Amino acid sequence: MGVSRRFISRALSVAALASAAFALCVPAGIATAAEPTSGNLVGHGGPVKAVSVNADGTRAITGSFDYSMVLWSLADQGAPADRIVRRFDDHDGAVNTVAFVGDGTRIVSAGDDGSVSLWSAVDGKLLHRFTGHAGKVLSLDVSMDGAWVATASWDGTVRLWNVATRKAGPVLKGHRGPVNSVVFSPDGTLVYSASYDGRIGRWSVP
Predict the structure, then answer these.
(1) Most buried residue among 105, 148, 150, 204 by CB atoms closer than 10 A?
(2) How far is CA 31 from CA 27, 28, 160, in A?
(3) What DSSP state is assigned to residue 189?
(4) pLDDT per residue over 82-101, tens digit each?
(5) What are the CA-CA distances from residue 70 to residues 9, 81, 156 (Å)?
(6) Contact (CB, 8 A) for 95 and 49
């Protein structure tokens, strides 16, 4: 299974980060958003580190420093506690990244324990746990067709996981530091990764 790689120049990555930082800077006194309201979702016991919303906007999944995930109903307008559909407590560390898979009936998550877990959003069952990373996982992304999950880890690697076969795919090595973020290209043929080494990696998907 061949995988090609390419690293985009440090200058380009720094320029992109600088541009993003500039875009986030807002002069004092300019209103940017409404104040929080009573409709906020409250239920975690620690800082919330990740959030993902399904395609039709009716459900959200959140991951927290409290080692848990919570599946929320966005369609209901009741009290926050009444909007909790399900709680997932099987990670052995902070949950850093979450996403819906495909049609939204499955969820994938990863965190400080280094594992990547596939869940049923329908009944809350753990469908599979992928293992292989030797460090915490900071980021994941799901290909548009739902076939692959890519993960970025502080062990310096990016890994691909096959959702259909539930087997490990290629290990993408080349970064010289922890990998903080990963994303698929829109057509699913490429994976981009960002690392402490100051480089953006570009990898082909088998």
Answers:
(1) 150
(2) 9, 8, 41
(3) S
(4) 788 888 887 889 999 999 99
(5) 39, 11, 29
(6) yes
User: Strand, helix or coil at 112?
Assistant: coil
pLDDT at 23 over 60: no
Beta partners for 98? 109
From CA 41, how far away is CA 60, in angstroms rounded? 10
Cα separation of 74 and 69, whole Å?
16
Q: Which residue has the tokens 């875009």?
A: 23
Q: What is the pTM of this model?
A: 0.78
Nearest to 160 by CA among 121, 125, 189, 136: 189
Q: Where are the beta strands (DSSP E) in the chain?
A: 5-8, 48-53, 59-64, 69-73, 84-88, 95-101, 106-111, 116-120, 126-130, 137-142, 148-153, 158-162, 167-172, 179-184, 190-195, 200-204
Across the range 35-54, mean pLDDT stands at 73
Q: What angle do CA 64, 65, 68 make, to 5 degrees?
A: 50
Structure tokens at 163: 């959702």
Place of tokens 């959200």: 60
128 forms beta bridges with: 118
Q: Average pLDDT, whole number, for the chain?
A: 82
- Euclidean distance between CA atoms 176 and 32, whole angstroms: 38
